[in-house]
What does this fold into?
Amino acid sequence: MNDDPSKVIEFLLKNAGIYAKAKSERIYLEEFRKSKKSLLMQQAQISGVETSAAQERDAYANLEYRELLMGLKQAVEVEEKLKWQLIAAQMKIDVWRTNQANNRFIDKANT
It folds into this structure.
């Protein structure tokens, strides 16, 4: 990404959808984590684990649950990287605007 405002705007437009998808993936995984825990607790109950605390312990220790957490970790990383790239692009546009305003002020002062 460079400092040309049109290129920065193109970058924002191109990556807005990617950011939205990354955020939706993260939110989906956060919500699915709850369902997965319930399903794993249910499996533990069927396997004879009686107390809900023991079922919860088994669910949290389950490989599938830990894999889901790794997926959530990756989703958050992608989302945050895109978020800060988009914020940086917006800041570049703000700097460009400020420079343009300063240049107009200097031109007006010199005339």
